[in-house]
Amino acid sequence: MKVFPQDFLWGGAIAANQVEGAYLSDGKGISTADVLPNGIFGELKERQANDRAIKDIAIDFYHRYPQDIALFAEMGFTCLRISIAWSRIFPEGDEAQPNEAGLAFYDALFDELAKYGIQPLVTLSHYEMPWALVQRYGGWGNRKLIAFFERYARTVFTRYQHKVKLWLTFNEINMSLHAPLTGVGIADNSSKTAIYQAIHHQLVASARVVKACHEIIPDAKIGNMLLGGLTYPLSCKPQDVLAAQQQNHRWLFFGDVQCRGYYPGYMLRYFRENHIALTFADEDSEDLKHTVDFVSFSYYMSGCATAEAELNQRQRGNILDMVPNPHLPRSEWGWQIDPVGLRILLNRLWDRYQKPLFIVENGLGAVDKVEADGSIHDDYRIRYLNDHLVQVAEALEDGVMILGYTSWGPIDLVSASKAEMSKRYGFIYVDRDDRGEGNLARLRKQSFYWYQEVIGSQGGSLTR
């Protein structure tokens, strides 16, 4: 394998609500993730003082981050994608002043990363927001949240301007179409108009925050983050090709607005034909012109689309539901495995936006077995990641500008969809199960040493 560029960033990606724990420690407020204790697709549950949920402790990264960062450094990480829990900084979201204890925690975390020369890539909102903003204002359906989010962003930009130079606005912003409560803080059975109005407010907030970042940290770069929902036509029938194009438009729309600064014509047609009438403020069009510096995305699987009603049997994998591709294998959780799709997606996004790309999530959730001697042989994960990284190398050869790769997640964590520990992604095993039992000990898996070699060789050790 040819080596990757010397400035290519290698690392992993985690989310605050899936790793930190410390559920209400140091002034943290209740978040939307906290009231979905069984995951994105679980039932809403108002939290009581004496109840317990697996994410309340998660993997206790809040207290164990020095140990975990040392393990990341041992693998050779040059980048770690994290998120800041908005409810640690503004516990109820609408306060005038931030919570100092929350700010101090991330100061310490960034300082620990700096000790090892690991660059933080920070997501401002990763599947959580203060629950009080949903209760008092109706979530992102209310324009007031634009100002609350901008206040939060300006606060952390100012505080960490000398420590963080890479930022993302909203994690997988297009997932609000599939899980509105998690994405925009409105009921999952909301109308299309309500969902897209909330999304509009979020897109305006994202653009305002891009402007703020450029003002406060001129040498920083700020990007968006898309759930890469690559869809192929099930056949070469023109009707299937058109169906796939339209399905891809549903998620590319978010990138189009954040990269180009305006709503594309195909989306305006979709609104007209579906009787979706959005309310725009006078300043929104100007605000949206503040576009991102780079495009980041997650990629786990691809799917198909068809215009044939009898063949349109969609199945859920990850957060998306798509028609299965008959030519692809599946993971234990039914997610179709398509390494070549990553090269296709990289080329498509590069051709479309001509902005640097960053793969900020890619990984395999699987059940791992700890052997009697404490070893964990996850060759299936190695094979999955190797094959995807080979396609990243191919995209680089195609001329695509790629900033880096952060696997999801470098250490076992609580899954977003169903709050499981048994769906493990990490190079590092965490001793905790779906019932919350275990001593939280960390163990290096076989993939730990494999990724260490990949990074040390700048990708040269990858095999075709």
Automatic annotation (TrEMBL):
The UniProt keywords, alphabetically, are:
Glycosidase, Hydrolase
Question: Under the GO molecular function aspect, what terms does this record hold?
Answer: beta-glucosidase activity
Q: Which domain of life is it from?
A: Bacteria
Keyword Endoplasmic reticulum in record: no
The record's section on SUPFAM superfamilies has: (Trans)glycosidases
Q: Which Pfam families match?
A: Glyco_hydro_1
**GO annotations of cellular component type:** cytosol
UniProt-listed InterPro entries? GH, GH_1_N_CS, Glyco_hydro_1, Glyco_hydro_1_AS
PROSITE patterns membership: GLYCOSYL_HYDROL_F1_1, GLYCOSYL_HYDROL_F1_2
Q: Catalytic residues per the record?
A: 361 (nucleophile)
Q: Which GO terms describe its biological process?
A: carbohydrate catabolic process
Family, per entry: Belongs to the glycosyl hydrolase 1 family.
Q: What is the name of the protein in this document?
A: 6-phospho-beta-glucosidase
